[in-house]
Amino acid sequence: MSGGSPVNPFDLSETIVAQATPPGRGALAIVRLSGPNAHAIARDALERWPAAPRAATLSTVRDASGAELDQAVVIRYDAPASFTGEDAAEIITHGGLVVPTTVVAALLARGARVARPGEFTRRALLNGKLDILQAEATGDLVSADSRAAQRVALRQLDGGLSRRVLALRDELIGLEALIAYDIDFPEEDDGPVAPARILAATDRSIDALAQLLATARAGELVREGAVVVLAGAPNVGKSSLFNALIGERRAIVTDIPGTTRDAIEAVIDTPTLPLRLVDTAGMRDALDPVERLGVEVSESYVSRAAVVLACADSEASAAAIGEVLRGRTTAPIVAVRTKADLRESATELVSIGMKIGAMSAFEVSAETGAGLDALIAAVERIVSSDAAPLETDAPLLTQERHRYAVGRALDEVRAFRGAWQTDALPAPVAAVHLREAVTALEDLIGVVDVEQVLDEVFRRFCVGK
Ligand SMILES: Nc1nc2c(ncn2[C@@H]2O[C@H](COP(=O)(O)OP(=O)(O)OP(=O)(O)O)[C@@H](O)[C@H]2O)c(=O)[nH]1
Ligand SMILES: [Mg+2]
């Protein structure tokens, strides 16, 4: 059936099949089938077919020649009440490399074709079960590599962002309707629509768009993780601390200053945000060219860190790193006194902190594990102020695509406001900016409906009198 001709992902007349679980040893696997012939194809391969949708039925699966392949649990879905909106079936087979593959082959032999990546979700989209943002969230949820990413994707899957964007777009369409009315009845002096009302509505839209756009920073932190850089003079114990924080020996530790040359990264998955912890080369005026390159990498990480952990094991090393960091970063700097098990005196913590530019220093020992949890908690507190939108239920912009669309809409509404307020452009021309803003938001959610403005005009103002 798949023959040599290319697959058309928009062709909904074909029935698609795929193993929905990863291949390999496992107790169970799920084979998913969707499309107009899904029921007929599955029925033909199964000894018992579920009498009702959404009920589990134990059944024998057979290949085209009638040979038994597995005892499987089958769930039938009737269109439109399925993930894709089509007739569908899920066959829960035994796992492993062979059983699910032979079950898929048995369904292919009966006329299904192999689904392309994401094709089930694409069909759900085409059948109106999901919008683009939700489809995107499905992908984000599957590829989530942190608890924060999981939480945000789930929220987006629930349609929160789509609803917010739709509401913003509806407000802009309402605004277009006000303007259209004004254009149609210019002789009515100030018109029935007070200009102040239009300006107020415009400002509300600008505020709302700007607020949504501001969540992009939190979205980026969820996606990329907050970069937390361990910086300090050579040999102060950065790599040891790095290993202790991630609970794994990743970075090489020796008592030779200048051991670390390359930046080494690892992710700590805190409930707030993933932290991308980076161990760097000790910062000093290195003579060795390789070490010098390492120091340059350290500097570049420091300049784009969300938080810098300035490590020192003495007042001298504190003064050295304090000097290096000054002017190199705008990120919050946390002073860390390493090797706490070898600490000199209590007053030393304060002077180390001051030399780095803080009130005091956190005291940690890679050797004993002391102070590690408190340090991570402090970092979490600092990054969570950047990630404030994560704490609320407000929807979040998580992709560059989102940021671009909302930024474009905001620019256009601002341009409209400028033109409208100064009478710089005739109203119909100024209104083009609003149309552009609406289009930007519609591109984001995948809705395009130009008739809607007209509908709105007639609904609100009964112009057809
Ligand atoms: N007692 C004690 N020694 C430590 C501790 N942390 C590190 N050290 C020792 O300090 C020395 C340097 O440790 P590293 O972790 O390699 O230091 P670094 O800052 O990464 O050094 P460079 O990569 O050269 O910049 C090693 O001999 C470690 O064993 C600690 O918590 N307690
Ligand atoms: Mg090191």
Detailed description of the structure:
With 465 residues, the chain is an alpha/beta fold. The chain folds into three domains: 16-129, Gyrase A, domain 2, CATH 3.30.1360; 160-215 and 396-461, Up-down Bundle (Four Helix Bundle (Hemerythrin (Met), subunit A)), CATH 1.20.120; 223-389, P-loop containing nucleotide triphosphate hydrolases (Rossmann fold, 3-Layer(aba) Sandwich), CATH 3.40.50.300. The protein is built from 17 helices and twelve strands. The strands form two sheets. It has a six-stranded mixed beta sheet with strand order 3-4-5-2-1-6, with helices on one face. A six-stranded mixed beta sheet has the order 8-9-7-10-11-12, sandwiched between helices. A hairpin with an 8-residue loop joins strand 1 (16-19) and strand 2. Helix 4 runs antiparallel to helix 5 (147-157). It is flat. Residues 456-465 have low confidence and may be disordered. It binds guanosine-5'-triphosphate and magnesium ion.
